[in-house]
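Reopening: Probable transaldolase still failing for me.
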Amino acid sequence: MKFFIDTANLAQIKEAQALGVLDGVTTNPSLMAKEGITGKNNILKHYVDICNLVDGDVSAEVNALDYEGMVKEGEELADLHEQIVVKLPMTKEGVMAAKYFSDKGIKTNVTLVFSAGQALLAAKAGATYVSPFIGRLDDISTDGLALIEEIREIYDNYGYETQILAASVRHTMHIVNCAKIGADVMTGPLSAITGLLKHPLTDIGLAQFVADFEKGNK
Ligand code: E4P
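Support: Ran it again with your exact input. Result attached.
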């Protein structure tokens, strides 16, 4: 399973990259705003800065809601850097734009996916990635992981190449369970990724090894 970090924070992206397990980055307009990145030129420059920090795909979301606007904005984003993936909302216009970019060989990520039917449409349109938001489904007492299972089954039935990018991941068990189900990618915060490192028996065992080594090597 590929690991993407879901942030526009350059320090956190650097930290995840340094760990050696990072395969890409996802951003969205809210994450950009959180970092105080506003204005077209600053936003475009920030995407290039992110691409220069990591080796893999970097999802950059269009803000237009109409088809022509999505195509124009998406082309501008794709021209920025070869690592850019054009992120499009799961709307009629977004699906049409996904088909447009897929026909041109430009990678896409269809976002804000909350049902298996939406994921099926994104795959039919040739999206590179589909982003079901599991955390936001869990937030409203719905089973986010069950949606990943449904999409996995549908994509496997027909051999769709669209990659399931489990998004809105909030914690370590989301990551582990997505891996068990067979999500192709997960995108989550740095805390969820580094949380995978933690186990008290590792800490206790290491403290014992250090103590025993020091006893024997005084
Ligand atoms: C996906 O690409 C989104 O940026 C993201 O995962 C949304 O997560 P949230 O529900 O924690 O905002």
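The mean pLDDT is 98. If you still see a failure, please send the error message rather than a screenshot.
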